[in-house]
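quick one before i forget lol
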Amino acid sequence: MQILLTNDDGIYAPGLRALRHELLKLGTVTVVAPATEQSAAGHSVTLLNPLLVSEVFEDDGKTFIGWAVEGRPADCVKLALLELLPDPPDVIISGMNAGSNAGINVIYSGTVAAAVEGAFFHRTAIAVSLEYDKKIYDYAAGARHARVVIEQILARKPGAGSLFNVNIPVLERGPIRGVKVMPQNITPYQEKFDRRVNPRGRTYFWSSPEFLCLSPHPDTDVTALEEGYITVTPLKFDLTDHDRLAELQSWTWKVG
């Protein structure tokens, strides 16, 4: 099996390294990932600057891992599929992200965006994220859980362009209770900004790293994660509101 591995935390992120170690048990892994952290980059792409690419090796300086790209996660997948890989991969894995990508975080996530880009190209794509508590990560254990879930998804031979979002709960809370296939929570997160004034009297703001979902919908990815379950959510990138499409088509429209 040929696996393309990418992420948004950067090619040197420990989550990517841990997941690569596990994915090597499934096949050949080629990494094409951002040279620097691109968290919350969403599905942005680079248009006005060149995409610089450099080869990356293991610590021994000999074992080729893949390429670091001076660009966004979606850029990495585009370059991998159109320029860097001699053959298309069987699956595209994005992660393992430091922090969950559940609920509306899916919209902002560079991790998920990279997987979406892979689905654009009709490849099976899976985004993987590890929830944290007080920024404590057990990447090795998280990667093992992720690999087992990925194996099960691929064993079902999903159709071309299938897209999945996988979240691993905080492992420090206790043993994993199981796997739940859940819809995406759509309740907004509570966000805060830290207001400050610089020495020149200019006001500026730091976005708080704490995102709280105070009233999530029951039976969604957010609530299942809190209960200690791995969540799997099938996604699609068609943003059309099909329920309202016929209604709008029935309107009488005028041209100004």
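fyi Residues 2-185+217-249 form a domain with the Stationary-phase Survival Protein Sure Homolog; Chain: A, fold (CATH 3.40.1210.10).
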